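User: I'm putting together a teaching handout on how multi-component assemblies are represented. Below are the sequence lines for each component of a complex, exactly as they appear in our records. Could you produce the 3D structure of the whole assembly as structure tokens, so the students can see both representations side by side? Please keep the chain order the same as the input.
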Amino acid sequence: MNPKSPLDELFRRKLAHYEVPPSDDLWGNIQLARAKKSTPRLPFWAPWIITSVCLATLTYFSQDFLFQKPIESTAKQEKPYKSNFVLTAESEVHIDNTYEKPRAQFKNVAPVFDNSLPTQAAFIIPSNDLEQVTNTTNITDQTEQPTESTFTSFPNIATLDATLPHELSMYSELLPVPFKKKLWFAKIDFLLSQDFVHSSLTAKTPLFENYSTSRNNQEDLKVSNSFAVRMGISTLKGWGLRSGIQYSRMSQTLTLNFPDATQRTTSKNTFETIDIPLILTKEQSFGKLRAGLSLGTYLNMAFNQKGSFYSPSGTLIEFTSSKPGAYPAFKNRLGASLYSGISLSIPIGNSLEFIAEPYVRSRIPSISSEDYVLEQKIWYGGLFIGFRKQIGKGFYLP
Amino acid sequence: MRYLNIASPVEDNELIQGCLRQDRKYQEAVFRRYVGKLMVVSLRYARHRMEAEDILQDAFIRIFDHIDQFQGKGSLEGWMRRIVVNTALKNIDKKSFSNEIIGLETTAEDTSGALPSVFSQLHEEELLQLIQQLPDGYRIVFNMYAIEGYSHAEISALLGIQESTSRSQLVKARKMLQSQILEIQKVAV
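Assistant: Of course. Below is the structure of the complete assembly, with chains in the same order as your input.
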């Protein structure tokens, strides 16, 4: 035991049973810190990656599903096109006739494909013919001047390739481009929207339930304006994928009634976001009107806020992100949100459409920072209006 | 006092068992039973209330995370108190122990005699404030030696300082406290 002076004893004796209460939110903070420590958290970009993989997978398999239908002939309505498929005068290609009667057999002549060709019979070349084909066919490039063949086109010729068996991949160099590729259309959207934003506040611990209730009662509906530019590609069947950039500015006039009812003030709060949408669309024509369903995700790239609210203890808190020392109540990025909309468009000019798209969007994670006592989730609902311009006349992906 | 004077017949052993199961009700009961006393410990080491609460928060997280390491030797309160002290010591700046207060005698130690009566009339809150007003090095050594009961050798090992430094800081701390108390007496008179 240490030799004690009377002074030491005085302090020891007096303070031995003395108690001081901590602040009310200490227990809540301890719970939060422990929960944060024990909960594995996904990085903010994880929802974006997961959603992108899902959409890509869906798109890939939906193509196989969509392009299995037999193709009906509308050849007479279509303009012929030139193929890259070039045969020399000595060319000889045999089509296997074990499936049905030969639909095309040509020697020293340019082949003309019959549009009524059943898909199952198309271009199956037995392996023992491969050697013959490769030996007797002299494929040249366009710089040589062999007998050049011209194919009659199919209106949906781009869809044929989905029915081709795998064996045909050996002959891929022999196939005309349209048989290998799908026809895509590129479009660009310019959109403006007026949105209404609803937010819900939830206390992370029971200690702050009264605070969240008070905030929920006092914070009114927010209004937002957005501007978006989306680039998209779509197929003849109406499937499309769109992405771009969107700027949104949400404003709110908040009346702050302090808990003790002695003070009242207002704050004009603004929240700015920059998002990248990734949207899968399916459209269908109804006469001139074209309607579609849009589903996708938004990846938030930036989030800035300006304004203030009151704290659980009743003091006014400044949360303007640009001010040093401002209270960090919100995240810098919000992660991802889910989007769904119904697009309606009508043509108004050459390759130009007017488009209206009512939508709803929900932020997946809370916009509050992890250390803040409330979870804040927001939903947007609004109407995009704008123009859609088709770029060019369609293309084949490389 | 929201967390104090909570009537509860639950024994410490039962609370410990509940905490071992990570039952939040029992954790809260432990918190409420001891937080008042541990707050005083934290305040003695911290410079201000906000820092004390940060220390206490970290200490309670460590307590609940490592409650399985409590072996029942001694009281639960004593074990928790040590964790609070250790948590407070984690953030100590070693430079604190090299600070000298000009004007204080470093050789004489005149606290062996009886204290003036005014000393015993001081309230706990005033004593706590006197400790908080000490420079960092003085405060920590005085707390560890005079109140927690650590020896200079233990303090030396725990803080990574020389024993002579610990002794010197203790003397200075006592001197400063005495002079401050006497100042209070003058004002009171």
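A couple of points students might notice: Chain A has six helices and 14 strands. Chain A touches chain B through 28 residues (CB under 8 Å).
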